[in-house]
Design goal:
The chain is of the alpha/beta class. It has 7 helices and 8 strands; from the N terminus they run H-E-E-H-E-E-E-H-E-H-H-E-H-E-H. A hairpin with a 2-residue loop joins strand 3 and strand 4.
């Protein structure tokens, strides 16, 4: 029987060592800071139309999966904002906290596994992207396929984070749109971050 513990441990270690550090100033890559030392509590604005007007509701960053009047069990969340607003930092924070096994963040679920994919580095479909960005380079084909089967079976305990969807190649958009619409990895939790200018294409899904 396949035991995914080792691969999950490798992914946790990767997040702890790579996503636990930030270079806040893009043109000063040498200036990196530990995420725990500079992270500030983010607040999100949930917007919806009510009687023809947009209404705003402030949401704590760890309440994005909390039920509300429009959805009893949110599982797919689209985070939209301008460059530098903290979307990628939030994605890293989710992965880093999971890697450190931190729990008890209000209504934020506990996941068996968090799969953080950086869309700027995606050149192929979902499973190849997971292998390229998260799995060891020397993993054999059988272990890789068994891990993918494990993810599919555990999908209701899986969080997939697609950070920077506006940087995904246009040629792959339709394939990833199937993920937004729940046709691939149905019942998994999903967080997608985008800049505002591409947000409409994600919102309709």
């Amino acid at each position: 029987m396949f035991d995914p513990t080792e691969l999950i441990g490798i992914i946790r270690e990767r997040y702890e060592h790579l996503e636990g550090w930030l270079a806040p100033i893009s043109w000063h890559k040498e200036d990196v800071f530990k995420l725990d030392n500079i992270f500030t509590q983010l607040k999100f604005v949930r917007r919806r139309r009510q009687r023809g007007r947009k209404t705003d509701h402030i949401v704590d960053m760890f309440q994005i999966f909390q039920q509300h009047e429009e959805c009893s069990q949110p599982k797919r969340v689209h985070i939209e904002g301008q460059l530098g607003m903290g979307k990628t930092t939030f994605s890293y924070k989710i992965a880093y906290d999971w890697a450190k096994k931190r729990t008890g963040k209000d209504s934020f679920p506990e996941f068996e596994i968090v799969l953080l994919l950086k869309c700027r580095d995606i050149t192929s479909g979902l499973w190849d992207a997971i292998a390229e960005q998260l799995l060891p380079k020397n993993i054999d084909e059988e272990a890789r396929e068994r891990f993918f089967t494990f993810v599919q079976k555990q999908r209701s305990n899986v969080l997939l984070v697609l950070d920077g969807l506006d940087e995904l190649p246009i040629s792959l958009w339709k394939e990833y749109e199937d993920i937004f619409e729940g046709r691939v990895l149905p019942h998994c939790y999903l967080v997608v971050t985008t800049r505002c200018e591409i947000g409409m294409g994600v919102r309709k899904c």
